[in-house]
Design goal:
Largest sheet: 5 strands, antiparallel
Number of helices: 13
Order of helices and strands: HEEEHHHHHEHHHEHHHEEEH
Number of strands: 8
Shape: globular
Strand order of the largest sheet: 2-1-8-7-6
Strand content: 5-15%
């Protein structure tokens, strides 16, 4: 397919997404996130042969939010190991909202997966004693092929001032013996990771690293072990779009992770990374325009992981 043809597909995807944004709203429970323009929309594709295709607000910065859970999981698996990470975290879809604590309190002693807040807080508690925020920030910049990633102080302060629910989850985890280190410091590190400033291109870069089996596409450096990448991509497919993950897997079929800042990270194995920005969210916390764009691109480029290729 020619560059012109791919560019046309992205422009058409942008149009498809723009027709959906008025059906959603920006995240309101974090005041700073509610300031975003709900009509912002951007998409970036970064291919394995080094080509970058973009449309819309693909280089506008926003905060990564829950997509940081993928970075934290990558680091934890790489440095703590599979057995340690999943000693107290399960690998199953929860079927509940990302910030729910109902099942954790009533039906399970362990978080259902690392992509919901209880699981991500547990992962960060493994990292807090051995990594500084600066080290994780540098790691994030390398994984996203974006050395300009920084902490958005305004969003961080806004989230910390409105973190009662995550604090409740964290202390519940401590009461069950799941978080064993300082709860407040773990919470602060978790919120800092959620407050990293990225672009759709940053997410496409990260997606490409995962699509490339953990190898930096330009330098050839191995950033993540193959087993780490396989685990992360699988959990993204089954749990990455909150309690809408199953429907998304059927309709789009690309391992993805969303965040309430409007981002979506998507991985097309051995082919490309896709980054999305669209802060208008559906009721489950996923970018409503971003989902429409990904569905369009998946259909036009035959990217569904179970698509038939004659």
């Amino acid at each position: 397919m020619t560059d012109k043809a791919r560019g046309k597909i992205l422009e058409e995807a942008l149009l498809a997404g723009s027709m959906e944004v008025d059906k959603g709203e920006t995240a309101s429970y974090i005041p700073e996130l509610s300031r975003a323009d709900k009509h912002d929309l951007g998409i970036c594709i970064y291919t394995r042969d080094g080509e970058i295709y973009e449309a819309g607000d693909s280089q506008k910065r926003f905060t990564i939010q829950s997509i940081s859970k993928v970075i934290s999981l990558c680091v934890a698996l790489q440095h703590c190991g599979f057995d340690k990470v999943f000693e107290k975290i399960r690998m199953e879809p929860s079927g509940d909202a990302f910030n729910s604590l109902l099942k954790l309190d009533m039906t399970s002693n362990y978080p259902y997966n690392p992509m919901i807040n209880s699981g991500a807080l547990t992962v960060v508690s493994y990292l807090m004693p051995i990594f500084s925020f600066k080290e994780l920030l540098d790691y994030a910049g390398k994984l996203c092929l974006d050395p300009k990633i920084r902490l958005d102080e305004r969003v961080y302060n806004s989230e910390m001032a409105n973190s009662a629910r995550n604090r409740a989850i964290a202390y519940l985890l401590q009461s069950k013996g799941i978080i064993e280190c300082d709860v407040e410091r773990s919470l602060e590190l978790y919120v800092k990771m959620c407050s990293l400033s990225v672009t759709a291109r940053s997410l496409a870069g990260f997606g490409l690293v995962l699509a490339n089996g953990g190898i930096h596409p330009e330098t050839g450096e191995r950033l993540l072990d193959r087993e780490v990448v396989r685990t992360v991509k699988t959990i993204m497919l089954t749990c990455g779009m909150y309690d809408g993950s199953g429907e998304f897997a059927v309709e789009v079929g690309i391992p993805s992770k969303s965040g309430v800042g409007g981002g979506i990270l998507s991985v097309v194995d051995r082919k490309m990374g896709i980054g999305i920005y669209g802060p208008s969210l559906d009721k489950k916390g996923n970018s409503i325009g971003g989902k429409a764009m990904l569905k369009y691109v998946s259909e036009e480029l035959n990217l569904h992981m179970f698509a038939w290729e004659p």
